[in-house]
Design goal:
It is built from eleven helices and two strands. The protein is mostly helical. It has a two-stranded antiparallel ribbon with strand order 1-2. Strand 1 and strand 2 (65-66) form a beta hairpin. Helix 9 packs antiparallel against helix 10.
């Protein structure tokens, strides 16, 4: 169930604008193919009625006989010409709407296939790494902050994997985590981000890893980078579901989506928060309620 929700949230972060655009097109009064077709039917019926009012086939020679319909034949014929012009215009709109709908369908299918492929690749990478809880690998929608676990030597020395300069000081994981938190408190978001990323590389299975992932998302959120913030919070929920920060990650994931104008997806996330974490802290519950009201959920 969680993997399905993760897919929905990931699609929301990058694909909801496409879906919303399709909905808006389908609901547009001028471009909705059904509305245009209904209007065409009404016009064609009116043309037929006007033609019956203007002519009858009662003559023995087959010549039309003008009926006394209370309006001049010229007026009725002008109305027929006007309606026929509307029919041509509506046919053009209908053709354009069908073309746009088909283009949107093809784009949406391509997008869905891309998302499916990304999640299959992520799942395969996680299996190859042998990470049972997924902490050693990220989905493709993640920020890349929890990269593959560092080698055992890096764990022992406190140095991050690769050649990236170390940000964290020497010491225990708790000391390093507090160092990153202190940077966050002082508003040094770029440095704090680097520290949390390094912590997650070196200590992906530490008890504080879920907290570090959450605060990584906060470094993006504080700088209004809601897309990367949402990616980080989604990873915090899916990878560290047992962390005490999992409810906070869902709350902030919804807030990130709302900030990206994906309010429907945000409401879905907050609903997940209520169903998965009914015993979340009062502050999280209260904030989620407030955000739902603001979004009109």
């Amino acid at each position: 169930m969680k993997s399905v929700f993760a897919c929905v949230a990931a699609v929301a972060l990058v694909g909801v604008p496409l879906i919303v655009a399709g909905t808006a097109l389908a609901q547009s009064g001028d471009m909705d193919p059904r509305a245009v077709a209904n209007r065409l039917d009404r016009i064609e019926r009116e043309i037929s009625d006007l033609q019956r009012q203007t002519y009858s086939g009662g003559g023995s020679s087959g010549a039309p006989v003008v009926m006394d319909s209370g309006a001049s034949t010229a007026d009725l014929q002008a109305r027929v010409v006007e309606l026929e012009e509307q029919v041509r215009t509506l046919n053009g709109r209908l053709e354009e709407a069908n073309h746009r709908t088909e283009t949107l369908r093809q784009n949406l299918e391509a997008f869905q296939q891309d998302v499916d492929l990304r999640f299959r690749d992520a799942a395969g990478g996680s299996s190859a790494a042998g990470s049972g809880d997924g902490a050693g690998a990220q989905s493709s929608v993640a920020t890349g902050s929890s990269a593959a676990a560092a080698p055992a030597a890096g764990e022992a020395s406190g140095a991050p994997a690769g050649s990236v300069p170390s940000v964290l000081p020497n010491g225990t994981p708790e000391t390093q985590y507090e160092f990153a938190i202190d940077l966050m408190k002082r508003g040094q978001y770029d440095k704090a981000r680097a520290a949390f990323q390094e912590f997650l590389q070196v200590h992906p299975k530490n008890a504080l890893a879920g907290n570090a992932q959450y605060w990584l998302g906060e470094t993006y959120y504080a700088q209004n980078d809601y897309k990367r913030a949402g990616d980080a919070f989604l990873t915090g929920y899916t990878t560290y579901a047992s962390s005490s920060k999992a409810p906070d990650s869902l709350l902030k994931l919804g807030m990130s989506l709302a900030a990206l104008d994906n309010k429907d997806a945000a409401c879905t996330v907050w609903g997940e928060l209520g169903s998965k974490f009914p015993q979340a802290s009062p502050s999280v519950v209260a904030r989620a309620k407030l955000e739902r009201q603001k979004a009109g959920c």
